[in-house]
Design a protein that fits this description.
The chain has 20 helices and 14 strands. By secondary structure, it is α/β, with parallel strands linked by helices. The chain has three domains: about 220 residues, 3-Layer(aba) Sandwich (Rossmann fold); about 80 residues; about 180 residues, 3-Layer(aba) Sandwich (Rossmann fold), CATH 3.40.50.2000. Helix 1 links the parallel strand 2 and strand 3. Helix 7 packs parallel to helix 9, helix 8 runs antiparallel to helix 9 and helix 12 crosses helix 18. It is globular, with a radius of gyration of 25 Å.
């Protein structure tokens, strides 16, 4: 299913390729996208939203800036399956065996390594685009496709169910034809910019390959790592081995298959993108380990609006409020349950303490209900509140600590926003949180600790770190000073905008097909 909500009458400067984020999903990445678009009013943006099913999303969570001149949304899982079974091959449809062999060769190149990946990917893009040698119907129903699928099942599948293998391969790959159609019809752009690998990154790679125009990749988290976490937790992935065949230390074949698929999409995106941007050094090194060319990688940290948030410090009460606030979506990766369990220990020692959870709870309703039930079962109904979406400017003066209990993060904006507003933090040791809390390098570290870092899924440590700061005014104020100094020196939005301005200038200068030159006013250089 596809929708064009706002249509550009001519080409755009930058096409943002966004999977599961702005403008239909609230969160840190979406807020960052909103920041970036508004920072460059002289650029004309197209937004390409890629989601699962239309029913998974409500109305837009963000007002579209005026310079978003084109918006289209595509839901890759609304039309999966095609109504065919594992035995439904269309009679007389032979399919292009040679083209399918090239597709199989591309898979083999990723599985075993090979120097011809880019050439094979270029051929695959031509084959699956509209009018190419492998259309979606051929993938779903041709004899050539059937032969490839059955051959790979015999060679590689360690799960006894062919039916599950057949449907897994189909569900994985069918969206690629939808992405090829999107690439074929998308409004012309001078630069493509994806904020993840995955399906959005694959679309960017196809566009870069077919148009010759630059693809910028900004990874806030490492997509393949985050998908692995999701795949470890998901219960819909089948494992047909019996109790005697299972090894508790091994992932099921289908989980491994999904993981390899997203790794494959990641390597394709890395091969096409330049520059490849991470938020901090550990993630940049992870990109290189996952196949990115180190020469194309760089770090650009997130930044927050210091000028807007700094005045909130004057609105704070003289006494630190005993309020611990988790600002984020109510989803498993944020580990809301650890925060709730930590609040039980906090309240035992500080009965007046409040735990606020400020963020949307509609993304995973079942998990949100489990969290509410946990609050009730721990007797915390008077101390823990689910606030839903809140305005940061109204929230920050009322809280004593920002708390982040996530099991995975990159460089979370919420910590930086808290620092800018004069609120220290307690965080799990994920992503760049240790760097944000204690500094990186001698000069940064000399600013002091802006809070405390604890282990993942350790409610006792989380509670004790929060109590240490809330019960010690001098320690809290020292953390506040360190956070303010760190965010103002290293993580302002002005610094981030300057760095991305340079990224766009470089990319637009490489777009030799553009007759109008660089929209930043440097087209003649």
């Amino acid at each position: 299913m596809s929708e064009v909500i706002r249509r550009a009458e001519q080409g755009v400067d930058v096409a943002l390729l966004l999977e599961g984020t702005f403008p239909y999903v609230a969160g840190g990445v979406s807020s960052w996208v909103n920041q970036i678009i508004r920072a460059y009013p002289e650029l004309r943006f197209a937004v390409v939203f890629i989601g699962s099913r239309r029913s998974d999303y409500g109305d837009m969570r963000y007002a579209l800036p005026d310079n978003v001149v084109h918006l289209e949304a595509h839901y890759l899982h609304d039309d999966l399956g095609g109504g065919a079974s594992a035995h439904d091959r269309k009679s007389g449809m032979a399919g292009d065996a040679q083209a399918f062999e090239r597709m199989a060769a591309l898979h083999e190149s990723f599985r075993h390594g090979g120097a011809d990946v880019e050439a094979l990917f270029a051929e695959a893009c031509r084959d699956i685009r509209p009018g190419g040698r492998i259309d979606l119907d051929a993938f779903l129903r041709s004899e050539a496709s059937w032969d490839i699928v059955t051959d790979r099942y015999r060679k590689y599948c360690s799960d006894p169910s062919f039916v599950d293998y057949f449907w897994t391969v189909r569900i994985m790959h069918q969206p690629l034809w939808q992405l090829a159609r999107i690439a074929h019809t998308l409004v012309p752009a001078k630069v493509y910019h994806s904020v993840s690998t995955g399906y959005a990154g694959f679309l960017g790679a196809m566009l870069a390959q077919s148009t010759g125009r630059p693809l910028v990749l900004s990874e806030h988290g490492i997509y393949t790592k985050e998908r692995k976490i999701d795949l470890y937790q998901n219960e819909w992935i089948r494992d047909n081995r019996n109790v005697f065949q299972k090894d508790a230390s091994e992932l099921s074949y289908f989980r491994q298959l999904w993981i390899r698929f997203f790794e494959w999409l990641g390597r394709i995106t890395y091969a096409a993108a330049d520059p490849i941007i991470a938020l901090y050094e550990t993630n940049r090194l992870r990109q290189v380990a996952d196949g990115a060319d180190a020469a194309r990688t760089r770090n650009i940290p997130n930044g927050v609006a210091i000028q807007r948030l700094a005045p909130l410090r004057a609105q704070r009460p003289d006494v630190v409020p005993p309020v611990l606030c988790l600002i984020g979506r109510v989803v498993p990766i944020k580990d809301i349950k650890t925060f709730v369990r930590a609040m039980r220990r906090v309240v035992n020692r500080m009965p007046e303490a409040q735990g606020w959870i400020a963020g949307p709870a509609d993304e995973d309703p079942a998990y949100a209900e489990e969290c509410r039930n946990l609050v009730d079962s721990l007797g915390l109904s008077d101390n823990v509140r689910f606030l839903g979406m809140q305005k940061i400017d109204e929230l920050m003066p009322k809280i004593g600590l920002v708390v982040l209990s996530s099991i995975s993060e990159a460089l979370p904006l919420v910590l930086l926003e808290g620092y800018a507003a004069g609120v220290p933090a307690v965080s799990t040791d994920v992503g760049s949180c240790r760097q944000l809390m204690y500094g990186l390098g001698d000069e940064d570290e000399a600013l002091g600790a802006a809070g405390r870092v604890v282990g993942i899924a350790d409610p006792q440590a989380l509670a004790d770190a929060a109590l240490e700061l809330l019960n010690d005014g001098a320690a809290w104020r020292a953390a506040q000073r360190a956070g303010i100094a760190r965010v103002e020196r290293y993580y302002s939005d002005a610094l981030m905008f300057d760095r991305y301005r340079a990224v766009y200038e470089e990319a637009l200068a490489r777009d030799t097909r553009s007759a109008s030159g660089c929209p930043f006013g440097h087209g003649a250089r």
